[in-house]
C-alpha cells in the first residue's frame, strides 16, 4: 500500500556536501598526476632567503631582488599593497593550492559527476606518454619542467592534449580563485555585497516524505495532483503561477534545493557545489565548450545576471516565416512578452557600473550601436555584482522571488531534492501521460545539506496527475529520462521515447562565448554594481540571417593562464571582463552516457560560429583600447596580452560605422585607432584565432533539443508545446526554441511558457467540461 505525504517543513542549508568530502575520484597514481599538473599551473613561489632545508621540486624559488621587483610592480600597477603588507603578499605567493582542504574538496565536487571516460583521461597511453620529460614522470619533475610539459600540450597536434591543457589550467584557476583566502584578502573581494542586509523572503514550504517503516524495499510514496511540473527554472515559474491561479492543483519538483536569501550570496565553493550543474565542470565530449547551468530551486533564474532582452525581430521573422510558427509574429506573442516584463518589473532606469559604461562609451566613440540591457529587478536599482551566487535582496524577480510566491499563495506545492527518473503513461496506446516517478532525498539534521548521507531519508515517490502534466527542466536533463523501461504492473515508458522522434536531443544551440579582459589603472572593483547591464549590437547580424556576436559585460577573473597567473590575479580589482556571445548557426546534440545514463553533450563550435566570436573579440579589444585599458587580455591560450606604451598617445578618434563591410574584421582596425603597436597586436590576435579545443568557449544558454515545429518530422513539440505523439505531455523551457534566440533567453522562454501554460489551462477546462457531460 502506497504511503501518503505526512509532513511539510521549511529549511535553509549551507556547507560542503558530505558525498563530496568523502568522494574517491580516481586511483591514487592518477590523483598524484592530477595534483602534480595543478601545482605546475598554480605553483608556490618562495624567496630563496626564506628557504629552510633542501629545495622542493614542486616549488618555484626567486631571489630577494626578484621579489622586491615584483613588489614594486604590484605597487605601481595596483592598489593591493595600499592596505596589505609585503608579508601578506609573501604568504600568498608561498601557498600551494593543492595543500588546501577546501581546494581539494571543491576540486572533488567538480570532478565527481564527470563521465568515467573523462575521469580516465590521465590513464590513456597518449596522455601518460605526454606527461614525461627526459623519461621521468610528471610527479618527479621540477615546476619549470612541468610547465614545459604543459606548453607542449598547448601546441600538440593531438586535440585531446590541447583540450587537456585547457581543462587543467582552467581547473587550477577556477578552484584557486574560488577558495584561496589570501587572494580574497589581497584583492579585497568581499564574500557578501557591501551593506548586506537581506530582507525576509517568501517562506516556502517543501513536501517532506516519511521514513520507510520496513527494512524491505518500501513501496513508492504516492502523491496526487492535477499538474506536475518537473524542474523549477524560468519556464516553470510562469507555468506554476498561471496554472495555480486558474484553480488547478500544481506540484513543482526539482532535484536541487532551495536556499533562503538570508544565506545568499554563497561563497564560491558552495555556489559551485550546490547551485551549478556538475559544479561547473560539465563540458562537451571534446572539451571544446564548458556548459554552465543552474541546478537549484529556481534553476537558471536563480543564478543568472538579470538580463531581460526581448526576442528580436529578425529571430521572430525566422521562426514565423522559415519555421512556419506564425504565433511569433502575432499580437498574442507581443502580449505575452509584455506580460512577462510587466510582472518582473523589467526596466532600464539604472546607472551602469564602470565595466558596463566602458561598452557604451567605447561603442559611441567608434560609431557602433550599444544600449542598456533591461533588468528584471522590480524597477529597482540592483547594484549587486554577487547576484549570480544567489540574490540576497530578492530584487531579481526570477522564479524564486517573482513567480513561485504567487503560485504558492494560489495553492501550488513544491518538492526539492526530487529527481524524476520516469514518466508514467497508461492506456492501450501508451500515449497519455498520467504522472512521474523518481527518487527523493531529504536534507540532513536541522535542514543542512553537508551532513552524512546515512542521516538523510531517501524514498521513491510516484506523482499521479489527473489528466495532464507539464515538463520544464534544463535542456541536458531531457535525455536522462531515456533508456530501457522496466516492467511494473502499470505501463511505464521513458519520457519522449514513445514517439520514437529522432529530433529529441538534437538541434542543440549553446550561444558559445569567448572572453576578453581589460586591466585599468583605476580601481574599478568589478564586483560592484549590476553585472550585465549594457550590450553592443553592431555585430549581431553578420550573414544577413541573424548570426553574429553581441558584446556584453560580466564580473569575473580573466580566463587566460600563464606561469605568472598568481601575480596577474592580483589585478582583479582593476579588471573588467567581457564576452563575445555568438548566436550559433551550427548545432550539436545531447545523448545518454552508455554507462551511467547521465546526459552527454556532443558540440564543437563550428568554424562559421568561431569566426563571429573572433569578430566580437577584436571589437572588444578596440573598445578597451579607446577607453584607456592599460592591458588587454584575450582568453586564447598562447596569445600574449597587449600592454599599452605609457608614453604613447592616441590620436583623436573619428566615429566610423563598420556594418557595411564584407570583411568586418579587417575594417575594425580602421575604426579610429592608429597606434601601430596596437594594430600589430590586432593582426596577431586575428592570426592566432580561437581554434578548439584549446580555446576556452563557455555556454550559459542551452536551447533547442525539444524544438517547436509544425509537424512531428521536424521537431518535438507542436506550436502549443504539446509533445508530438502524446497526450497530456508538454515542454515549456528553452529547449523548445526553434533555433538560438540570439539574446539571453529568459524573457523568450517565459513568454513561450506563458502561452503554453494558458493553452494547458484551456485543455484542462475542456476535459473537465467534457467529463461533466
UniProtKB/TrEMBL annotation:
Q: Region annotation Disordered: residue ranges?
A: 646-666
Positions of transmembrane segments: none
Regions of compositional bias (Low complexity) in chain numbering: 649-661
Q: Which residues form the Glucose-methanol-choline oxidoreductase N-terminal domain?
A: 275-512
Looking at the record, the residues that make up the Glucose-methanol-choline oxidoreductase C-terminal domain are: 595-752
Keyword Flavoprotein among UniProt keywords: yes
Checking PANTHER family in the record gives: LONG-CHAIN-ALCOHOL OXIDASE (PTHR46056)
Q: What protein family does this chain belong to?
A: Belongs to the GMC oxidoreductase family.
Know the name of this protein?
Long-chain-alcohol oxidase
**What species is this protein from?**
Gnomoniopsis smithogilvyi
Amino acid at each position: 500500500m502506497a504511503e501518503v505525504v505526512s509532513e511539510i517543513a521549511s529549511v535553509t542549508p549551507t556547507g560542503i556536501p558530505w558525498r563530496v568530502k568523502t568522494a574517491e575520484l580516481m586511483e591514487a597514481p592518477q590523483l598524484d598526476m592530477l595534483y602534480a599538473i595543478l601545482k605546475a599551473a598554480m605553483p608556490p613561489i618562495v624567496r630563496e632567503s626564506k628557504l629552510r632545508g633542501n629545495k622542493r621540486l614542486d616549488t618555484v624559488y626567486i631571489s630577494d631582488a626578484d621579489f622586491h621587483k615584483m613588489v614594486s610592480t604590484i605597487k605601481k600597477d595596483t592598489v593591493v599593497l595600499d592596505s596589505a603588507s609585503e608579508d601578506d603578499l609573501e604568504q600568498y605567493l608561498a601557498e600551494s593550492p593543492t595543500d588546501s582542504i577546501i581546494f581539494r574538496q571543491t576540486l572533488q565536487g567538480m570532478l565527481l559527476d564527470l563521465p568515467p571516460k573523462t575521469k580516465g583521461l590521465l590513464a590513456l597511453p597518449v596522455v601518460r606518454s605526454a606527461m614525461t620529460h627526459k623519461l621521468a614522470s610528471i610527479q618527479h619533475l621540477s615546476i619549470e619542467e612541468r610547465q614545459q610539459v604543459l606548453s607542449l600540450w598547448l601546441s600538440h597536434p593531438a586535440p585531446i592534449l590541447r583540450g587537456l591543457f585547457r581543462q587543467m589550467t582552467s581547473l587550477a584557476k577556477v578552484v584557486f580563485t574560488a577558495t584561496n583566502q589570501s587572494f580574497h584578502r589581497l584583492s579585497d573581494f568581499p564574500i557578501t555585497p557591501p551593506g548586506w542586509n537581506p530582507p525576509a523572503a517568501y517562506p516556502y514550504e517543501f513536501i517532506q516524505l516519511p521514513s520507510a517503516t520496513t527494512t524491505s524495499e518500501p513501496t513508492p510514496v504516492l502523491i496526487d495532483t492535477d499538474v506536475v511540473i518537473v524542474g523549477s527554472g524560468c519556464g516553470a515559474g510562469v507555468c506554476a503561477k498561471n496554472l495555480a491561479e486558474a484553480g488547478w492543483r500544481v506540484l513543482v519538483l526539482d532535484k536541487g534545493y532551495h536556499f533562503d536569501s538570508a544565506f545568499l550570496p554563497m561563497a564560491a565553493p558552495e555556489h559551485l557545489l550546490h547551485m551549478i550543474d556538475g559544479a561547473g565542470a560539465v563540458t562537451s565530449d571534446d572539451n571544446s565548450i564548458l556548459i554552465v547551468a543552474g541546478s537549484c530551486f529556481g534553476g537558471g533564474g536563480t543564478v543568472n545576471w538579470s538580463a531581460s532582452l526581448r526576442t528580436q525581430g529578425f529571430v521572430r521573422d525566422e521562426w514565423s516565416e522559415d519555421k512556419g510558427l506564425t504565433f511569433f509574429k502575432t499580437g498574442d506573442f507581443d502580449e505575452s512578452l509584455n506580460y512577462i516584463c510587466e510582472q518582473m518589473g523589467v526596466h532600464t532606469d539604472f546607472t551602469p557600473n564602470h565595466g558596463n559604461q566602458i561598452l557604451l562609451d567605447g561603442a559611441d566613440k567608434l560609431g557602433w550601436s550599444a544600449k542598456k540591457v533591461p533588468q528584471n529587478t522590480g524597477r529597482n536599482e540592483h547594484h549587486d555584482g554577487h547576484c549570480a551566487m544567489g540574490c540576497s535582496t530578492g530584487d531579481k524577480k526570477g522564479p524564486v522571488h517573482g513567480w513561485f510566491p504567487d503560485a504558492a499563495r494560489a495553492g501550488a506545492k513544491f518538492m526539492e531534492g526530487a529527481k524524476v527518473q520516469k514518466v508514467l503513461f497508461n492506456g492501450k496506446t501508451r500515449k497519455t501521460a498520467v504522472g512521474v516517478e523518481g527518487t527523493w532525498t531529504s536534507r540532513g539534521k536541522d535542514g543542512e545539506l553537508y551532513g552524512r548521507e546515512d542521516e538523510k531519508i531517501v524514498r521513491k515517490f510516484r506523482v499521479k496527475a489527473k489528466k495532464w502534466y507539464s515538463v520544464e527542466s534544463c535542456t541536458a536533463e531531457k535525455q536522462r529520462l531515456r533508456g530501457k523501461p522496466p516492467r511494473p504492473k502499470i505501463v511505464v515508458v521513458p519520457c519522449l521515447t514513445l514517439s520514437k522522434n529522432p529530433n529529441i536531443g538534437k538541434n542543440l544551440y549553446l550561444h558559445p562565448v569567448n572572453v576578453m579582459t581589460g586591466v585599468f589603472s583605476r580601481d574599478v572593483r568589478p564586483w560592484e554594481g549590476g553585472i550585465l547591464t549594457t550590450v553592443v549590437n553592431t555585430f549581431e547580424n553578420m550573414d544577413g540571417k541573424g548570426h553574429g556576436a553581441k558584446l556584453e559585460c560580466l564580473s569575473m577573473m580573466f580566463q587566460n593562464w600563464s606561469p605568472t597567473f598568481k601575480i596577474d590575479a592580483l589585478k582583479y580589482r582593476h579588471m573588467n571582463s567581457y564576452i563575445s556571445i555568438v548566436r550559433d548557426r551550427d548545432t550539436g546534440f545531447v545523448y545518454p552516457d552508455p554507462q551511467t545514463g547521465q546526459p552527454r553533450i556532443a558540440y564543437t563550435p563550428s568554424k562559421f560560429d568561431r569566426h563571429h566570436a573572433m569578430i566580437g573579440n577584436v571589437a572588444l579589444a578596440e573598445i578597451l583600447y579607446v577607453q584607456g585599458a592599460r592591458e588587454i587580455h584575450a582568453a586564447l591560450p598562447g596569445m600574449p596580452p597587449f600592454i599599452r606604451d605609457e608614453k604613447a598617445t592616441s590620436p583623436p578618434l573619428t566615429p566610423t560605422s563598420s556594418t557595411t563591410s564584407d570583411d568586418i574584421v579587417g575594417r575594425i582596425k580602421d575604426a579610429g585607432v592608429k597606434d601601430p603597436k596596437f594594430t600589430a597586436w590586432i593582426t596577431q590576435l586575428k592570426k592566432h584565432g580561437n581554434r578548439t579545443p584549446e580555446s576556452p568557449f563557455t555556454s550559459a544558454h542551452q536551447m533547442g533539443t525539444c524544438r517547436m515545429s509544425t509537424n512531428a518530422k521536424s521537431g518535438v513539440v507542436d506550436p502549443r508545446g504539446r509533445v508530438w505523439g502524446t497526450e497530456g505531455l508538454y515542454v515549456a523551457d528553452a529547449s523548445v526554441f526553434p533555433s538560438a534566440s540570439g539574446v539571453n533567453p529568459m524573457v523568450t522562454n517565459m513568454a513561450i511558457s506563458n502561452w503554453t501554460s494558458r493553452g494547458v489551462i484551456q485543455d484542462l477546462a475542456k476535459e473537465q467540461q467534457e467529463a461533466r457531460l
